[in-house]
């Protein structure tokens, strides 16, 4: 089969979070399973672009509403990611450093999708499957079905994977002419609560919809930022496939960001060396359990609860632990996390920003990873942490529920709690400290974590079965 993935992110080209990791890894593992994979994404101005060789494969123009724009498709020449990588350049819209967060994101991602469909319609052969990811690409299943100019593509099966239903790409109806001349009778497919809702349109138009864990698939029917009724109605075409991790990139034996490598046989010494380096850098005490948080500082991740949960833990659990936070997001959370540094100096530190290298060193050097998420469709952090022998302390939600078994349950290896609240987080920290202080048990749990397999093989096979079910 030939699968064309369309996404706003793909590691290592451009990544803001887990979407990038998944689109960087899934095509690679599908290729290893014997299929042809191509990834197409916007040509942002990232380091990867300047450090690699490219050839132009297509140039053309299209309309976004009344605006005529030129687009160029370039291809990486060496196939270094293990699949064909294409970038779409649109001057004035995609030629930016950041992936998201601009006032004209609607124009940027709509024109990107138009360029992809326009390019596809000029191909001599077709992919067998068109796999789109999240709302930035979710208008494509609509476009190939209902835009007159592209309707000859309508028999290509489309799969939409929802990595996060919180963001839906809402557009005002005044922008409906952005979508190339489409069958007006189908306005109801675009509409949700008097707005154009690209994610809703994708759910209705795609042949199959998947999301990234079984629990999140179920939770979306109860809570998905307004789309609950749609998920209930469309449940017959939806499936949950848990994400895997790229074990070539995330491997403590070979990780290029680490200076002290380790395997299960050198676990204790290896983690200690990483922890000491991290603690020296951030003025923390390596003899105490080290809790880390890595992620976007937003409500979904319950990052707003961190300052109080950390303060309460240090205060009520007698400073028996240290904390280190890495992340960026809402300004008031960033500020609070920075301000706490002087008060809890020696017990707590934070690094505000995005730092891929530091994140790897934190997974390796930490004893515990905190993830109190309010919403977590899958979550990759806990999977990386476990691969590095770091015990996850998580809220039971979405993919965290599906991948972490509490140590109080048979076969358990993590710490789980029910509510995204300061009290539950602090209690989780308390249980973790108790575990840490029972050194024998703690070591046994860490060994067990490193033996777990969260690789892509099983999930890649599930995607393959799903694709096959759509072919004639
Ligand atoms: P989400 O995609 O919702 O942000 P995931 O758990 O799926 O959450 O994936 C987050 C990914 O982004 C992980 O690879 C994590 O290590 C990385 N990440 C998040 N914030 C940062 C940061 N500030 N610096 C470096 N890496 C980060
Ligand atoms: C989203 C989700 C996260 C998931 C990631 C990759 O960003 O928030 O839970 O792991 O996508 O699927």
Topology:
Elements: E1 2-6, H1 18-32, E2 36-42, H2 47-51, E3 54-64, E4 67-76, E5 84-89, H3 105-121, E6 129-133, H4 140-146, E7 158-162, H5 187-190, E8 191-192, E9 195-196, H6 198-205, E10 208-211, H7 214-219, H8 228-233, E11 238-240, H9 267-282, E12 290-297, H10 306-316, E13 322-329, H11 331-343, E14 348-352, H12 356-365, E15 368-371, H13 381-387, E16 391-395, H14 398-403, E17 415-417, H15 422-437, H16 439-451, H17 457-470
Parallel strand pairs: 1-2, 1-6, 2-5, 6-7, 7-10, 10-11, 12-13, 12-15, 13-14, 15-16, 16-17
Antiparallel strand pairs: 3-4, 4-5, 8-9
Residues 17-19, 22, 163-164, 212, 243, 376-380, 399 line the site of alpha-D-glucopyranose.
Pfam families: Glyco_transf_5, Glycos_transf_1
Domain Starch synthase catalytic: 3-231
Function: Synthesizes alpha-1,4-glucan chains using ADP-glucose.
CATH class of the largest domain: Alpha Beta
| Annotation, overall tally of beta strands | 17
The outline comes out as: globular
**Total discrete domains:** 2
Average residue pLDDT: 97
The percent of residues in helical segments reads: 25-40%
Uncertain parts: none
The neighbouring-strand order within the major sheet is 3-4-5-2-1-6-7-10-11
Please report the number of helical segments.
Answer: 17
> Which secondary-structure class do the elements indicate?
alpha/beta
The name CATH uses for the topology of the largest domain is: Rossmann fold
What share of residues are in beta strands?
A: 15-25%
Bound molecules: adenosine-5'-diphosphate, alpha-D-glucopyranose
CATH superfamily of the largest domain: Glycogen Phosphorylase B
CATH architectural arrangement of the largest domain: 3-Layer(aba) Sandwich
Distance between the termini: 12 Å
Catalytic activity: [(1->4)-alpha-D-glucosyl](n) + ADP-alpha-D-glucose = [(1->4)-alpha-D-glucosyl](n+1) + ADP + H(+)
Pfam families: Glyco_transf_5, Glycos_transf_1
Function: Synthesizes alpha-1,4-glucan chains using ADP-glucose.
Keywords: Glycogen biosynthesis, Glycosyltransferase, Transferase
């Amino acid at each position: 089969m030939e699968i064309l993935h369309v996404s706003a992110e793909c590691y290592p080209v451009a990544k803001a979070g887990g979407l990038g990791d998944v689109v960087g890894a899934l095509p690679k593992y599908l290729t290893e399973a014997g299929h042809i994979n191509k990834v197409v994404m916007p040509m942002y101005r990232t380091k990867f672009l300047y450090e690699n060789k490219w050839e132009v494969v297509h140039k053309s123009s299209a309309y976004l509403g009344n605006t005529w724009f030129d687009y160029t498709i370039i291809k990486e020449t060496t196939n270094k990611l293990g699949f064909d990588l294409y970038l779409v350049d649109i001057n004035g819209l995609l030629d930016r450093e950041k992936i998201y967060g601009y006032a004209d994101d609607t124009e940027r991602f709509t024109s990107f999708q138009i360029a992809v469909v326009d390019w596809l319609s000029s191909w001599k052969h077709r992919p067998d499957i068109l796999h789109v990811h999240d709302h930035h690409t979710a208008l494509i299943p609509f476009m190939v079905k209902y835009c007159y100019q592209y309707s000859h593509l309508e028999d290509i099966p489309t799969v939409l994977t929802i990595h996060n239903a919180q963001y839906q790409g809402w557009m005002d109806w005044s922008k409906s002419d952005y979508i190339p001349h489409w069958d007006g009778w189908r306005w109801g497919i675009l509409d949700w609560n008097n707005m154009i809702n690209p994610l809703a349109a994708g759910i209705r138009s795609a042949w199959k919809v998947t999301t990234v864990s079984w629990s999140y698939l179920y939770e979306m029917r109860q809570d998905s930022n307004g789309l609950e009724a749609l998920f209930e109605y469309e449940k017959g075409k939806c499936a949950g496939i848990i994400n895997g991790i790229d074990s070539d990139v995330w491997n403590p034996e070979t990780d290029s960001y680490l200076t002290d490598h380790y395997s299960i046989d050198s676990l204790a010494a290896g983690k200690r060396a990483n922890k000491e380096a991290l603690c020296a850098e951030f003025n923390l005490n390596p003899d105490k359990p080290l809790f880390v948080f890595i992620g976007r500082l937003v409500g979904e991740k319950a990052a707003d609860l961190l300052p109080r949960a950390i303060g309460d833990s240090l205060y009520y659990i007698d400073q028996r632990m240290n904390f280190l936070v890495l992340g960026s997001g809402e300004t008031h959370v960033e500020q609070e996390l920075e301000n706490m540094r002087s008060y809890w100096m020696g017990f707590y530190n934070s690094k505000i920003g995005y730092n891929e290298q530091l994140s790897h060193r934190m997974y390796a050097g930490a004893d515990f990873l905190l993830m109190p998420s309010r919403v977590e469709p899958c979550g990759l952090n806990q999977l990386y942490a476990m691969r590095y022998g770091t015990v996850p302390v998580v809220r039971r939600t979405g993919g965290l529920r599906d991948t972490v078994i509490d140590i109080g349950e048979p076969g358990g290896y993590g710490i789980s709690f029910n509510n995204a609240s300061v009290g539950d987080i602090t209690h989780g920290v308390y249980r973790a400290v108790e575990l840490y202080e029972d050194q024998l048990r703690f070591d046994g749990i860490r060994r067990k974590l490193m033996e777990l397999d969260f690789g892509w093989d099983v999930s890649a096979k599930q995607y393959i079965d799903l694709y096959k079910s759509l072919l004639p």
